[in-house]
């Protein structure tokens, strides 16, 4: 009943919370500043972690196995190889390329002078058919390549060898290590926000005691402080969102200019910025709400 009564007076409690923030100016500003700094750290770490994860996944997905078919293999034998490739566990996609397409790729990759020279090979194409194999998990690329080598009429299998496997393991360690580090640091900074709000409320223990002496209910006392924590979290998220909006858009433009690649691609600014902004607001308000709730609670216990 106390809670429902307090909810009915929510507009008055909101007004009281805003007045308390204004009245306790220095302490409120220090709390908002602490929230701003910590949310800024979370935003930077979140952006780095998300984009590192995206880039590493993109690199892993770009790893393919190139399979050359014997030149003397018949069309039936080449087709049989494709069927066996699709049957290998862990293969995501198999793309066929005829010997004519392979020669055209080779010609197009040459300079204008050499193109004429390589074009003469069209009369007697020295190349064979080929397959490009994409795998579901880059960690299994060496194992799958080994299986492909055992298929009859396969002339050569190329995937980068042990260096590719080492790179896959390195990318996985980077991704997992980054995620753990970002999570641990997020917990630490959220604890800092809650502790800052707790200190601000502790300094007003006398105010809470007086309210109790005049007969105010627990929820009547608690709710304005909780709303105050929410507003502090909300105000503290404004600057990080502004920095995120302009900073990430600028960083994205500069990165794409310097490293224009189909693999090294960052998250597009929108709607990524809106999603990150929503997370920052929820974190700030949520931690402010929960931190205030537990900080006030100890002053309401006899």
From TrEMBL:
Membrane topology: Multi-pass membrane protein
ABC3 transporter permease C-terminal domain mapped to chain residues: 180-299
Family note: Belongs to the ABC-4 integral membrane protein family. FtsX subfamily.
Protein name: Cell division protein FtsX
Keywords of the record: Cell cycle, Cell division, Cell membrane, Membrane, Transmembrane, Transmembrane helix
Residue ranges of every copy of the FtsX extracellular domain listed in the record: 64-157
One Gene Ontology term, aspect cellular component: plasma membrane
Family annotation (InterPro entries): ABC3_permease_C, FtsX, FtsX_ECD, FtsX_firmicutes-type
Protein species of origin: Intestinibaculum porci
Location(s), subcellular: Cell membrane
Function: Part of the ABC transporter FtsEX involved in asymmetric cellular division facilitating the initiation of sporulation.
Transmembrane region(s): 21-50, 179-202, 223-248, 272-296
Pfam families the UniProt entry points to: FtsX, FtsX_ECD
Gene Ontology process terms (BP): cell division
PANTHER family: CELL DIVISION PROTEIN FTSX (PTHR47755)
